[in-house]
Amino acid sequence: MEPAMEPVKPVIEPGFDVVTGAFSFTGRAIALRLLSEERRVRTLTNHPNRPGSVDVKVDVAPLQFADRAALVESLRGADVLYNTYWVRFRRDKLNFGEAIANTRILVGAAAEAGVRKIVHISVSNPTADSHLDYYAGKARTEDIVRNSGLRWAIVRPTLVFGNGDILINNIAWLLRRMPFFPIPGLGGYRVQPVAVEDVAEIAVWAAEQSDNVTVDAAGPDTVTYGELVEGISIAVGRRPRFVYMSPRLTLWAGNIVASRVRDVMLTKEELQGLMEELLISLEKPRGTRRMDNWLLTNAETLGRTYASELDRHWR
User: Fold this and answer.
1) Topology (CATH level 3) of domain 167-191+221-313
2) pLDDT digits (tens, 9 = 90+) for 76-120
3) Cβ–Cβ under 8 Å, residues 183 and 229
């Protein structure tokens, strides 16, 4: 009698992951991390031809909030959705309220598509009752994720630095060119920089957790803003005169430069959040990469060209 044959088990192709904005800054780092682990990745983006996109080998689908059916289909079969979607400031008809509504559409589409888990990139210290709309809006998007019915993880980065960032690069750009550099107040408020690669690693770690988690993504060092600027000036080899100004005058000076480069350099809410020390964490740091090391490694190229927010996301 011939032995009974065991049933043939079907070969199940592993699911893919979806990253919103994989050709941008944080999304790019997450996509590259996933690709390094041989995950299949799809991005939802409205900027498929952004410079550097050819280096990120992912499937591309449009991020169209107005077409929910297409959004659901682009997410169907996905294992994890890494959501980096947000807006830095109000622009044209898009404001924080619209970004919250778009997040609700995206998360609802993920639930309908059967996505296993969503990893939502937020910001450090968001609160629903914050007087800063940016932070209050981020808190509302977190609530949308928590109430989605999906398994979820929320990652809250502090001040993110790395290749392709805008803020640190443009501070270096100003230090290289300006006769003086404005520092709002006395510069004694603290920040806790975190490397974008650390944010990506924390996000991928969070996706692997069986429980729902909310974690900060913060680096190992906490410095004052004045020390941060000093460190950048040492790296680029130029220290203009530091001028300590009121926040109002700092924004005024920033707007003058912004008008020359046709961009938005710094918003009032960003400055308030910085000075209120919202870019630090009270948790044990999960990031390990030090900003000083990164500055020294990238000193030759940092701030050589201006990084435009409007060019990257709007034009």
Assistant:
1) UDP-galactose 4-epimerase; domain 1 (3.90.25)
2) 999 999 999 999 978 877 899 999 999 999 999 999 999 999 999
3) yes
